[in-house]
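Pair request: fold both.
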Amino acid sequence: MTKLIRDQVAALIQTGIRAAQEVGALPPFEVPDVFVERPRQVEHGDYASPTCLQLARAARMSPRQIAEHVVAHLPPADFVGETAVAGPGYINVTLDTAWLASQVGDILAEGESFGALEIGQGQRVQVEYGSANPTGPLHIGFARNVVLGDTLANVLAAAGFEVEREYYVNDAGSQVRVFGESLYARYAQALGQDEPFPENGYAGDYVVEMGRQFAEEYGDRYLDVPYDEATRALGREGIDRVLDVARQDLADLGIVYDVWFHEKSLYESGLFEELLQVLRDEGYITEYDGATWFTSPELADDAVVIRSPAVVPVPDERPTYLASDIAYVWNKLVERGFDKAVYVWGADHHGDVPRVKAAAQALGLDPERVEIILYQMVNLKRGGEDVRMSKRAGEFVTLRELMDEVGPDPIRFMLLTSTVDSTMEFDLDLAVEQSDKNPVYYVQYAHARISSILRHAVDLGWDIEAAGDLALLVHESELVLIRKMLELREIVALAATQSAPHHLTFYARELAAAFHTFYRDCRVVDAEAPDLTRARLVLMRAARLALSRVLRLMGMTAPERM
């Protein structure tokens, strides 16, 4: 695992500041952390630092003078080709051409660990995503949840965290009872009984179909038992079947969980009642209006009900969602000992974020160990028009329908293209278009084209595993491609530290574009230039590896042919 070039540049500039101080070119002052960024204009080099702009008061001279002294005292570094002072006092750094070319071999040597970092240092992080009520098919909004969560888990693992992926099964509470009542009604109706459908029951063809299946499998067995017993039994069976379908749908989307955690276990274990007493003893619980309320200074005057007959009238059903969240955060951070718990929730849960953090703090936990990512909804488009209805479910577009139409890879890529706080439009027509307009096709085609180049070289008798003289890689398009390959490490760091996996899609397109430009400008296999051919074949293998790595970080396939 390699240290980020950006951090090496920052350390170099920090060393230059201290060296200038040691010889008296700069006065004594505390050397700050050095900020390094990528310049917007390529002529300004590979990296730029505005740190000297912040030192004018401490050094009692202009930022440009400071920068000139720092540059004059920078120690030599094999990765630095040129340093320059620009504008009012920026330090611009350009990477050395020979060093860049040598990195192609290092990329290949890293293999499938290319892009891996040690930022996490083995900290245990749990990422919980999905967690839809197990009362119906998974839909497109849910798909954004699981794609975000799963990709973030991939990135965190690549950044050196020990990651566990969890699906929280909401199988406690009144929604389970209502689901059972809905299934019972459809079951009885399938047997010819005039059973009324419950008010606020679960509509949709999938409930009708499941009721028909129960009628075929069980006959009139549940017509001869008490209603409550029958609805609970069918509700549990229905949830199991919904979860079985969900597991398969998610697996087909490339998502496999380490743990399926059942909400009801928080109550069956007695954990909730135990923590409720702890909060009561600490003064965080208030009883009034016949309800139990959680209060906290972190919530100001916003008391939150956690148990109320008006909210959950059936005594043995789960209290409110916050009640489960209180027990669940304790289970994660204390009983299972995760260093951090990451939740992926829809934006409609924004009001619950401060409540969960306040509950964690009330339990003596650091609320910073809780991170909740909120994402906005997804609008499906076809022919410029909204797509709202599902032929099967009757009320929403299911994940299975979407996968059947466009496939898993376009779903994963396109659901990552926007920041989580942006409502996004999923263009069904674009998702299946095989052209450069489709970013999924554009990126995967770059990988397939490289594979084709390498196969062609083999057919012509070239040994594509042979070493090459990488110093021959001096064409500008070659160097641009190498620079972009090396940027993967920084993208992994950015996505992991900011919980922003959308950066992967932008990087993937830029990497593909760098390859396509190289392919336009540089002939790979040339019998008249065997040494250069061997060097470029090594470059192609490294580029294919980089593309494969970013595709797999996004949970996508890296096709050899298209």
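--- second member of the pair ---
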Amino acid sequence: MREISRKSLNDEFQDHYLSSSKAGMRIGFFLLMIMMAVMILFNSIFFPDSKEPFFYYRFWIIIPLLVISIIVTFFPRLRKWLSQIFIILNIGIATAIFWVGITATPLDIGYESYYTLVALIVIVFFAFFRMTPKITSLIAALQFSAYVLATLMNGSFLHNPFIYFRNLCFIMAIYCIGFLMTLMFRRLNWKNFLHEKALSENYKTLLKEIEERKQAEKSLTQSEFLYTSTINSIPDWIYVLDKDLRFVMLNTSLQEEHLRQGFPHNCVGKSITKIYPYIPASTIAEIKSVFQTGNIMVGEQNFFLRDITIYGETRKVPIFKDNEVIQVMTIMRNRSKEKELEELKQKNIEQKEIMLREIHHRVKNNLSIVISLLNLQIRNNPDPELVRIIHDIEMRIRSMALIHEHLYKSESIDKIPLASYLHSLATIISGTFSGHRINLVSQFDKVDVSIETALPLGLIANELIINAFKYAYPFQEKGEIQVRLKLDQENLWAMVIQDNGVGLPDSFSMDSEKSLGMFIVGLLVEQIGGKIDIIRHNGTTFIISFKASISKNQNVDK
């Protein structure tokens, strides 16, 4: 990761080095062309008969290369290709050095200036071309090789070895000095680049911090405005206290109430006991407790204003800073109207309960009258079949009347204690068949159900228990009938009615309309969304499974 960052930094520096040196490069190349033109013009004017200047004309081949070097610096789109362009141009300059050297001989007039012009080109190369040290050294080696190869091929070494090595050492020295100067300038620019970059980064960081601070201040101002506007828009009375129980702020609603009641308007910085001299000690204790524990405290408090009692709800909320309670906000809400509505609602509920209880009581009485009328009918018509039918109807009416009696006596007028109801029903039925030698055993788990569930279950129990008394023991032998109410493994309630009598006949069917009672049982089971299972073993067992809205309480045995 560090190598990638270093390479990226070097590339950025190279781009910066090229960009910052464009003006100097242009001036250097332009001055070099002017100097060459002036030198040739000077020799042509003052030394027209001399043949030495004509040797300089051969180096005019580099003039187009210098012109191209100047032109490419003016095109921003070529900025990322400048290094590659300079490499190609300097390869052309190396080729020019080789071509001028190979086409000349040591015997040519002015040949002794060849190495001088090469040295000038070397100085221009190191002074004005901005490339990486690696590329610079490779191009310098290429130019030096071109010079050495050209001078060897044109016979300079054989013509005068001493002068050859002297010129070669001079050129080599120029290359070494130029390369060292390039490294020195590059190092200085590197340091300046790093300093500028650090300053730029610091400046950007500073600008960012300033912007963040401005944004934070703006957000804080907006937050404070929103906080104040929100607090002041709340109709409740709100005030904030510090640890010394001095007011920090009061919302507009409380300030307006102060003006109406004659309390001081400007309370900020003053003690609460000074503003409210009759404040209860319990209120002060609650505020101190919130400072200590950091817990919200909710309570009620009555206010006496202008001979009017206001029922208020108070909420004391801690305000934290660095996990420490520094302030406590008290919110006081006028609940007088709500309390009046609650009292009126409660009164209406009580009146409604009284009316409903009275209705259930009257329904029970009316059903009792119906039973009495049926008994009168039996007296007037002693037909045994009619008596049997009327007795069955009477028992069904008694089970319904018993429901209304439980609702009349129950604490809740919408729920019936099913265990108590079934126990009472079983007791009534057992009393009706008091002449039998049959023992009725009941065991009920407590559960409350609605009248929509209790009434069908009562009718079902009535039919099944009466049938057990009537038909399970045809020879008046001893027997036992069990009635149970329990919660089974499937989280369903089960009402079990079991006898150890003779059992059901093979032709028995719940859907048979010949047995009206069992047909009614099937319809009632469907009505409560339950199911009925019949077990024909050692008598008969009916299991009616159904759902109840309230879970099981403790068991009760009867």
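Observation on the second member. The longest strand covers residues 308-321.
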